[in-house]
Amino acid sequence: MIFYLILLFALDVTLQHAKLWRALSYFNRLKQNLEILKHRKNTEDFEIQILIPVLWERGIISDVINYFSKILENSRINLGKISLVIIGSIKEINDPNGTLETAERYITNHKLKNINIVKCPILGSKATQLNYYINQNRGKHIWYFIFDVDSRPEKNFLRLFFSGKPLVKNIYQMPSNYLSNVSDHGNPVRNAFAMNQTIFSLNTEFYNSLECNPLKKFTSNSLMGHGLIINQYLLDKLGGFPDPVEDSRLANIATLRGIKVKMIPIFDYSSVPEHLSTLLMQYSGWFFGQIFIFKDMRVIFRKKYSLNIYLKFFHRVIVNLYWIFKTPFIVGVLSALVFTRQFNLLIIFMYIQILNHVKILYLNRLSPQNRLTTKHIFHSILWDFLYSLGPLLFFIRLLKKRISKNSSLELLPKTEKNKFNTN
Description:
The protein is an alpha/beta fold. The protein has helices at 2-37, 61-79, 99-109, 126-134, 157-163, 188-209, 232-238, 248-257, 276-290, 293-300, 307-339, 343-358, 374-382, 389-404, and strands at residues 47-53, 82-88, 115-119, 142-146, 152-153, 171-173, 176-177, 228-231, 261-263, 268-269.
């Protein structure tokens, strides 16, 4: 039995290597095509708005505004009307030293233009903040670029994106790149997360969206709350972002309503928390968004859909189950081999485990600045033993909320039926 489990694991490792290599090849090729076209002038009449929802971010908001203000200035020549919108939460609106107040002082002191501050008066989530703002723009031709405060997209991302002539009926997503957080003398766990999350963004999220993917019709859509690009036209049609999770649930809605999600070869560079506790809390929050698939799946059983719709949702379930059980599987196999004294199989399993993480060296193809080495392979292995802690922490938090019977903190509210309406 254990032998066949190891064989299955080896096949998965081989597949992951092949997918990452192919994803990197297509990413670089598509990026080169956009680079050739990036100086093409825009002839369409639309507005561009970069939206950044914020909460308790006064320590870094000045750096955020400084970074994006330079992008606005450099992109305005070819693309026309562009603005940056900082959307605050009611949770800190009355704080004299809050994020919005700090942002306003920075904008005034540096005499910056085309940067707007919006105060959302409705208590809720990130989706609540976004919906409050976009509901004021119904019927307008606006492209929204949604980022987090730690997002640092490529500086020419606007020119690259519009050189590809995007369609308003599609949703676009930048893959995430965390490699800037990797260092030779840095925290090994932080390095491991940065490398493996970048790989996941490429060989799962990016690869699944490629037309060349032989299983594209049966793999689920992926969206993140940062690096997400969508037009007001489509948001009007959808009725805004699903609350309380604006990204993964939007991907579920797109699947049901036949809306294409296109991953583009432009990176959104993101940060990794310094401390393990913060990192795991973030990881738990991501799983919170993904777990809604089990709620949203109820919609597909109320009507008849095509087989590939059911398979797409089933694929997302498999991805989540993999997230939950990967670490227990690895620890279980290692323990079983040690206790049964099958040391030959133990060596083979550990060798396959190392080979699995050799693929991080492929990431050096992305940029000559990447210098991942053998040392980083062993850092990467650490993540296999932490991979399932995010889901575990989520279930612990969920159990605590249930025990406290605090309905206002319910982690799995009901699915909004109207957003999934395919009519």
